[in-house]
Amino acid sequence: MTDHRQVVIIGSGPAGLTAAIYTARANLAPLVIEGEPSSDSDQPGGQLMLTTEVENFPGFPDGIMGPELMLNCKMQAQRFGAEFLTAKATKVDVSSRPFTIETSVGQSVTADAVIVATGARSLMLGLEAEKRLLGYGVSTCATCDGFFHRGFDVAVVGGGDSALEEAMFLSKFATTVNVIHRRSELRASKIMADRAKANPKLNFIWNSVVTDLVGDPTLEAAQLKNVETGDESTLPVHGLFVAIGHIPNTNVFTGFLDHDEAGYLKTIGHSTFTNVEGVFACGDVQDHVYRQAITAAGSGCMAAIDCERWLESGN
Ligand code: NAP
Question: Rounded to the nearest whole angstrom, what is the distance from the C-alpha of residue 184 to the centroid of ligand 1?
Fold first, then answer.
């Protein structure tokens, strides 16, 4: 069965849901292909579904739980007529208009315009305890969660620019920031490395990997193994930040949308237009710099407005 829509939004994090609210209120009756729950911490609602309390989204002076914020955004979009399909987009054909989107549930949809808001995901260590403790001491975002660790010891895993950036930010709150790196040399740029090494709150733990995490219901310690000596140790920490890289969710699009070397989609100038007319990109799928819920929501709004104006101009 093929359904036709003026606008199909792929992805249901802050970017996709904001685009849904705006396009729905513009009477474009969008269909949101919201993703589907999968085993590897990937589900409708995006990265905020894996977070506990969000304290930096404007409008919530007492904070709000990540999943509740996403549910509110979804209900807000539904109130204005957005519809949701619980499925993943498996193939998008932009060779002719209307575009065709095939989904994991067998239903295909045609669309006059497509807004891509599939986000990015953090690479994780792959430990069983990491899934259980995500949002309970384990985090992938120091900007989001650093504040919760004021006066405590924390750890950052990774040796790249992201890890050092997270560590430097955390040093404003934490007593000691342990940087756990699997080699004896940083991957980060020299300027970042020099700055980090000069920070007295940072303690580098070289040649080491995290083998397990301890604590229930919240994180209490990380089990470490020195990969050179085989020595094992326990590092008590209140928070552990995984900063070993991100991957944009762009597999379905990289065949026809311009992207950078890491796979992030390219948009034109300050707009959300991609190289394919009628396809717009917003949120973390095209932003490897800010990666915040509020910046994703802002760019979702931009995509909806770009899309609405493009449709209105007779395309
Ligand atoms: P990255 O440069 O790929 O670094 C990832 C780090 O994580 C590496 O040190 C890597 O170790 C480690 N790692 C990877 N998998 C691991 C695992 N399973 N267990 C333990 N450690 C693991 O990623 P990034 O730091 O996110 O940076 C991505 C890009 O963005 C880079 O080009 C970076 O320069 C840029 N960036 C720039 C800035 C800035 O300029 N302010 C800030 C952030 C990011 P190895 O070193 O052993 O491979």
Answer: 14
